[in-house]
Specification:
heterotrimer; A mainly alpha (about 750); B mainly alpha (about 120); C mainly alpha (about 550); B: about 120 residues; mainly alpha; Helix Hairpins; about 75% helix; C: about 550 residues; two-stranded antiparallel sheet; about 70% helix; globular
Amino acid sequence: MLHQALHLLPTLAAAPPAHADSGAAATPGGQLLMLVPALCVLAALFSALSGPLKIRSKIPGYFSVACLAGAFVAVLLTYLGHESGVKIAHGFEWITFKWGDGPGQALTGNFAFYVDSLTLLWMLFVTGLGALIALYSVEYMADDVGLGYARYFFAFNIFVLSMSCLVMADNLLLLFLGWEGVGLCSYLLIGYFYKKPVAVAAAKKAFIVNRIGDLGLVLGLLATFVAFGTLGYDPLFAMIRAGVDAKGAPIADSWVTDVIPLLLMAGAFGKSAQVFFYVWLPDAMEGPTPVSALIHAATMVTAGVFLIARMYPLYAADDDHMALSLVAWCGAITALWSATIGMSIFDIKRVMGYSTISQLGYMFAGLGLLAPTGAAFHTLTHAFFKATLFLAVGAVMHGFGGQLDLRRLSGVARMRGFGIVGLAMLVGSLNLSGVPGTAGFFSKDMILAQGFSTPASMIEAPQAIAWVLLLTAGLTAYYTFRAFFRVFTGPVEYLPGDDEHLLEHGRHPKGTTLAEWHKQHGHGHGHDHAHTELTGVAARRAHGRKDFDPTTEEFDPHPPGWAINASLVICALLAIAAAALYFVKTPHAEEGGWVGGMIERSSAAFHSPHEFNLLGITSHSAMYLVSALVGLTGIAVAAFLHAPKGWQGLFLGSRDTAATSRADALTPRLGRVARWARAKWYVDELYDWFLVKPLRGIAYVSSWIDKLLVDGLVDAAGALPARVGRVLRPSQSGVLHGYAAGMAGGVALVLLLVLIVLN
Amino acid sequence: MSDALTLAQQGWPAAFPAVTLAHYLFVSAAMFTVGLIGFLTRRNLIIMFLCTELMFQAAGIALVAFGRYHLDFSGQTFVIFILTVAAAEAAMALALVVLLFRKRETLSADEWTEMKG
Amino acid sequence: MMLASLIIVPLAFALFIAVGPERSAARVSLVGMLATLGLSILAAFAFDWGFGGQFQFGMSVDWLPGLGLTLSLGVDSVALMLVLLTAVLGPVCVLASWTAITERVKTYYAWMMVLQAAMIGVFAARDLVFFYICFEFTLIPMFLLIALYGSTNRMRAATKFFLFTFTGSVVALAGLLYVAWHHAQTRGVWTFEIDALELAARTLPPHVQALILGALLLGFAVKVPLFPLHTWLPLAHTEAPTAGSVILAGVLLKLGTYAIYRFVLPFAPEAVIEYAYPLAVLCTIGIIYGGLVCWVQTDVKKLVAYSSVAHLGFCMLGMFALNHAGVTGSVLYMLNHGLSTGALFLLIGMMYERYHTRSMKEIGGLGARMPVWSTFLVFFVMASVGLPGLNGFVGEFLCLMGAFQASDAWGAGLWGTTPGDSTVGGTRGSLGPWVAAVAGTGMIIAAIYLLYMVGKVVFGTLREPPGHASHADHHAGDAHRAAGLPVDLTRREIGALAPIAALCVFLGVYPKPVLDAVQAPVERTVTTIAEARGKPKFRPPVELAPPAEHAAEGAHP
C-alpha cells in the first residue's frame, strides 16, 4: 500500500509545488544587497591600505566589524522586506558577450544577485557570523597588530565578499567567482602563519584539493551551458521546471540530469570536504581559530551544500535520482568515516575539524534523502554551534599558548575567567551531540527521520543511510563530550603550548614538541609515561581552583577579554535560539519551522515524500526518541571513559589527571583499529604514495624527457650541419696552389661538360 | 647593319687579310694558359700575381676581339673597365704582398696556410 | 599616420639614445616608451571601437609596385589591443632595467626601442612583407639583449633562440610566399596585401592548404611555443635579462599566437578544421607536460618559463576550438598572459637583483623579508592560476568553454545527447568535453606548481643565499644597500608593477569592454571557418581565373 502510494511521488515531486511561488518570473529589486559587496570591498581596501599607511592599531579590525555589521543589516532589511518570489539585483556586466541572437549564442555572466529566500537564509548567517567572528578576531589577533593584522582582515573581508558573491550570484559563473574567491581566502588564511611549514603545506593542500573539485564544477558549468544555453539561474530554472533543455527535449532521462549533477557534485564535495576530498579540512586547522570557525566550519565549507541546494531543481529533475542517491551515500559514509577519526585523535581543534566534515556529511545526506529543508536547517544550526565550539576552542588555545592536546589540558572551565568559555563549549557540545531540546537535535532529527521515510524507489537504500547516520550520531555525541570532559572538567591541570615562541622562531609548536612526544610514547597509549612526562617535566599542576595561583607560575594562562567573551555569548545564544526556529509557524510550509518556510519559498523547494506513520507515530516523533537515546548513550559512554569523578562527570567518570582516563585501558584491546583510526586511517599517506609521489615522479620523468629527448632532438638537428662540415673539412688545405688547381680543374670540367653537351 | 656585318665577316679591314678572329683567340688562349701554368707552378707571390694579370689580359684580348668581330663596342668598353680595375687591384695586391713579406720575410705562397680547415 | 608614428617614434628615440650620452640613455628611453604609450592610448581613443572588425588607420606606401610590394599598415581591435599591450610593457621594461643594466647602457636601450618598434610593426602590418620583416627583425634586438646582457650561458641561449625561431619562420615564409605566388598565378598580379592573399589562399585545394598549414605552423608554433617546439623558451628565459624575459613572455610569444590567428586560421581554414584535433592534443600535452615540468624546477625563472608553455597551450586550445568562445578566449588569453607572466618575470628579476640567485634551494620565506614584493608575487601568481576576478580567468574559462563546445558529436547524438541537433550550446568541431576535461587538469597543475613556488619562495622559514647576509636584519639591509637597493621594493619598482596589477584587476572584474571589442574580428574569423565547413571536402582543382575578375568571387565556388 505504502509503496504503491509512493510510486506516484516522483511525478508529484517533479511538478512545481502549488504554493511555492518561486516559479514566478524574477523581478528587478533587492538593490540594497549591493551594499554587501560594496562594504566588504571598502573594508578590504581599508585593511589593505592600513599596512602601507602604517596604522598600528586595531582600527582595521573595528572598521571591518562595522562594515560587516552594516552588510548584515542590509541583508536583514532585505529579508524583512522580502515576501516571496525572486528578485534580481543587477550590478554590472561581467563576462557577458554574445555572438548571435539565438539561444546558446550568448554568455551571460553578470555581476547580479539572485535574491530569493534560499539566498537570504544563507546570507543572514554568512554576514551575521562574519561580523561576529570579525569582532572575535579583533581581540584574538591583537598580538599581530601592525604585523599581519592588515593581511588578516584584508583576507577576511575578501572572504565575506567572495562568499556573498557565491551565495547571491544570479548565475553559475559568478558563483564560480565566489567559489574560487573563498578558496583563495581560505588559502591565504590557512597560511596566515606563513613561517610555519605545516601551515604553508596545509594552505597549499587546501587550495589544490579544492581545485580538483573545481575542475568538476567548471565542467559542470560548461555542460550546463551546452545543454541550456545559459548559466543564469532564472532561465535555467524555468527550463528545468518545464522539464526540458533549451531545445525543448525532455531532460528527465537524458545525459543532462545524469552528468551535470555529478560534475557539480564533484565541485561541492571538494569545497565541502566530502569523500575523497576531505583531507584538506583537518589540515586547514593550522589557520587562526576564528578563521576555522568562520570559513572551515560555518560558511565556506557549506558552499557545497548551498550549490546542491541551489541547483536542487536539476537534481530533482532526474527520474531515478541517481546523483542524489550518490550525494546521500557519500554524505553518510563521510559522516561515519570522519566520526571514527574524531573519536580517536587528541587534538581538540582537529576533533572539531573532523566533526565538521562529519556534520557536512549529514547535510549532504539530508539533501540526498530529499530533505533540503533538513539540510538547510542543519547547515544553519551547525553554523552557530560549530562556530561557538571553535570560538571556545580558540579561546582555550589563545589562553594556553596554542595548546590543543586534550591530554594536556584539564578543568579549564573551572579556571578564573574561563567560565564563559566553558559554558559556550557546553552549549556547542550539547547541540553537536543532538541532546533533546537543542537546535542540533531538531535539525539532525529532520534528516534522520527523512531517511527512514524516504521510499527506496526514489533513493538507493535510504534506510541504510539513516542507520549509518544514526550510528554516527552516537559516535558524534561520544567524541564531542570526550573533548568536553577531558578539557573542561576535572582537576585543573595544563601544559602550555609553545605559541609564544612562534613569531621569533617561526616554527610549529606541535610540529616539534608534540610529534616528539608522540614518538617517545608510542601514540600515547602508555599512560604511565604520559603521566610522568606531564607531571615531571613541565606540567604546572594545581589541585582545584583554590590552590591555583597564576601569579607564581611562569606561564600565565590569559583568560579571554570582552570581545572574545561577547562573541562567544552571542554565538552560544544564537546556537540555543536556533532551536526556536523549528517552532516558528510559517504559512509557507507545513513543517520545518522558519527554515522550512524559507526553503519552500525558494527554488530548492521539494515536497518530501509522506512520512511513515504507524499507530499515530510519525517518523519524526519516533526519531525524537531514538536519536535522543542514541545521543545520550554516546554522552554517557564519554562520561564513563573520560569524565572526572562527581557531578561534573555525571557520576559516571573516574578520571583524576589530565593525561589518563579509562579509555587508555580500552584502546589497546581494540588493537589495530584504534591505532589506524588515530592515524586517520592512513589516508594522507595513501594519497601521498598513490597520487602525489607518482605524479611527482611523472613530473621528474617529463623533465628528463624534456631535457634529453625533446631538447636533445633539437640539439641534434642543430649539430647536423656541424657534422657535415666536419666531413668536408679536410678538403680545405689552406694551400693557395691547391685552391688554384681545384679551380682550374673545375673550370676544365665545366668546359668539358659543355663540350659534351654541345656535341 | 647587315652590310657592316658582312664586311666584318669578310675580314675587313682588308690591309690585314690574314689576321682573323681565330688569331686573336689563339693569342688570348696562349696567354691564359701561360698565366695559368705560371700561377700553378710558381711559389713566388709576385710572380703568381703577374700570372693572374696575364690571365686577365688574355681575357681582355678575347673580349676586344669578339667585340670587334660582332661590331659591338661594349666589349672594348668592358676592357677599359677591366684595365682600370686591374690597375687598382694591382696597387692593392702589391701592397698586400709587401705586407705579407714584412710579416714572414719571404715571398713563398706556401708560408700562408691560415685557411686550412 | 597614427600607426606609422607608433613605429617611427621608438625608432627616432633609438637614434637619440644612440647619439646621446651614456648616462641619460635610460631616461630618454623611458620618455620614448612613455611617448609610444601615449600615442597608442591616443590611437585607442581615436579608434572606432564600434567597427572593431575593420582595419582602421589604414595607410599604404608603394615600395616596389612592380613586384606588388607595398608597405601597408592598419589595425583591427585585436591588433590594436596587442599594440596597447606592447606599449604598456615598454616603460615597465625600462623601469625594470634601471639599475640592472650598468654596462653598454646606450646599446641596450637603443635596441630596446628598436625592438619596441618592430613589435608594434608586426601587429600593425597589413602586408605580408612588412609583417615578415618586422617579425624577423624582432630577433635581432632580442638576440643582442640576451647575448650581451644575459647571464652565464647567454651565448648558447641566444644562438639557440635565434636559430630555432629563425629556422621555423623561414619555412613559414615559404608557405606565405607560396600563397602569394598562387595569387599571382590565379589573379595575374603580384600582391602581398594580407586581405587579397587570404581570399586567394582559401581557393587552394585542401591538401595544399594542409601543406600551407604545416609550413605556417612550423614557423609560428615555434614562437608560441607549442609542444614539442618549446625547448628554446626556458633556456632563453633563464639567460635573458629581466626586461628581455618580460618582453619575451609578454609580447614575443604573442607574435606567434597573433600570427596563427592572423594567417593560419584565415589562410588554411579547411586544413585547420581537418587537423584541429591533433593540434588540440598537442596543446593539451603542452598544458599538462609543461605544468608537470614546472613542478620539478628549482630555478624560479625556469619554472615561470615552462608555465608559459602550459599557459599558451590553453591559448592555442581555444584558438583551435574554432568557435566564438574559444577564439575570444584565446585573444583575451594573449593579453592576460602578457600581463601576468610579464609581471612574474619582473618580480623574479627584482629578487635576482637582490640575491643574485633564482634557485629555490637557496632562497625561501622571503615574505618575512620583502612583504611588498611577496604581496605582488602572490597577486600575480593568483592571476596566473586563473582566479576569477583577476584577468587570467576570463581567457582560460572561455578557452575551455570553446573546447568543450566544439564537438560535432553534440549534434550527432553522442555524448549521451539525443540524435539530431539537441544542444544549443554546442558548436561544430572535433574537440569536445574530453579534451576540455583533460586540458582542464591544467588548472589543477597550474595551482600545484605555482603554489609550490609561492610556498618555497614567499612562505616558510627565511632562507637567504650563503654569504649574502646573516639572519640579522641590519646586515641584510647593508648587503642590499651595497647593491644600491633596499631590502624591499623601491618606488620605481612598485611603479612598474602597480599599473600591471591595476590592469589585471580591471580586466578581471570588468572584461566587458575587451570582450565587446574583439567580437567583430572574432566574428570574421569564425565566419571564415564556418564557410570552410560548408565546403565539400573534395573539389576539382582551381581553374585559372582571369586577372580582371574580382578576388571575392574566387573564394566561394
